[in-house]
Amino acid sequence: MVTTEAVAETAGYAREEVRRMLAVSERQLKAWQRQGFVAESEVFGFSDLLALKTLKKLRDLHIAPTKIQRAIASLRRMLTDVDQPLAQLRITAEGRNLTVHVSGDKMEPISGQLLFDFDAKEIEKLRAFPGKRAALPGGSEGQEQKSEHWFQRGLALEEQGAPVADAADAYRRAIEANPHAPGALVNMGTISFRMRKLREAEDYYLRAVQSDPEYALAHFNLGNLFDEQGRVEEARGYYLTAIRLNPRYADAYFNLALLCERNNEVLRAIGYWQTYLKLDSSSSWARAARKQLERLKRTVRSK
Q1: Where are the beta strands (DSSP E) in 58-131?
Q2: Domain boundary assignment for the chain
Q3: In the predicted model, is pLDDT for residue 216 greater than 80?
Q4: Is residue 123 predicted with pLDDT exceeding 70?
Q5: Fewer Cβ atoms within 10 Å of its own Cβ: the N or the C terminal residue of the chain?
Q6: 107, 134, 162, 186 from 174: Cα distances, Å
Q7: What are 64-83's pLDDT values in tens digits?
Q8: How far apart are CA 169 and CA 183, in angstroms?
Q9: Residue 232, number of CB atoms within 10 A of its CB
Q10: Using CA atoms, how far apart are residues 52 and 33, in angstroms rounded to an integer?
């Protein structure tokens, strides 16, 4: 999964360019700056652009600025490693109520109540990289079938938007029946990651990799985990392994490009952006990737 918190800041976007991209008036832009959603400036970074895009969407849904401000304050208290909720998280509205999507989970931002959000694309990713069904030592077919049953039950609960605890319980049962079930281990790792239990998430992901060394999603998720912790070379290694196992893994190229940008590896970043755009040329993130690529190319030409 692409993480917006990893997005690198490069050269800024001029005020007029931002207004044109978002189709907002100067009056509205000034109002958002006055309200403290973005800093007073004539030049905006990429994270500012993401925040403004979210604000425009919420304005179109008639969400009051005061409600957005309360949600942001609450999210900063609950998620201490999130500095810019509007840029780092996907915030939407259901009716008059705000919801925040944290790596695929849906949370009510004031109370912190966490529910799985059914996102067909994310569920398809889980099914696309299912991992091998690891056989139990001794070949207990009954236990393997039981594990698979609970794993499928966990996926079904996610699709239904069930509470996190229910899906987690299903995955735990799958792991109890087969401690080497990579799919259930990865999904438990992801739940731990979203709950900010990073050591626990790392343990689950590593167990998944040990159970199935060719499980690309497990390597990718370890890359995300280490990337967020600033463990650059470990993150890079797991992203590259995910790509070796699945050369069309677009999200891994995206995150590698960002990692290289942050470490001033401009030429490598350009290469990864180009590969990403060959694999994904039309999504909402493709436009951002193309913009980053163009800026890096101008940087190289100017030297």
Answers
A1: 90-94, 97-102, 105-107, 114-116
A2: 1-96, 249-303
A3: yes
A4: no
A5: C
A6: 25, 12, 17, 12
A7: 888 888 888 887 777 766 77
A8: 14
A9: 14
A10: 10
Dump strand ranges (E) for 90-207: 90-94, 97-102, 105-107, 114-116
Mean of the per-residue pLDDT values of the chain: 80
Give the three-state DSSP class for 92: strand
* pLDDT, tens digit (0-9, with 9 covering 90-100), for 233-251: 999 999 999 999 999 999 9
Alpha-carbon torsion angle 135, 138, 142, 146, nearest 10: -50
CA distances from residue 184 to 164, 168, 175, 180, 206 in whole angstroms, order as listed: 14, 9, 6, 9, 12
- Average pLDDT of 196-214? 93
Query: What does the DSSP 8-state code read for residue 102?
Result: E
Tokens of 152: 């499928």
pTM, two decimal places: 0.59
User: Which residues, in sequence order, are CB contacts of 27 under 8 Å at separation 6+?
Assistant: none
d(CA 141, CA 189) in angstroms, rounded, equals: 25
Tokens encoding 221: 């998720």
Q: 138, exposed or middle or buried, with CB in 10 Å at 0-12, 13-18, 19+?
A: exposed
Integer Cα distance of 37 and 65 in angstroms: 9
Considering 71-80, 151-160, 170-179, the range whose residues carry the highest mean pLDDT is: 170-179
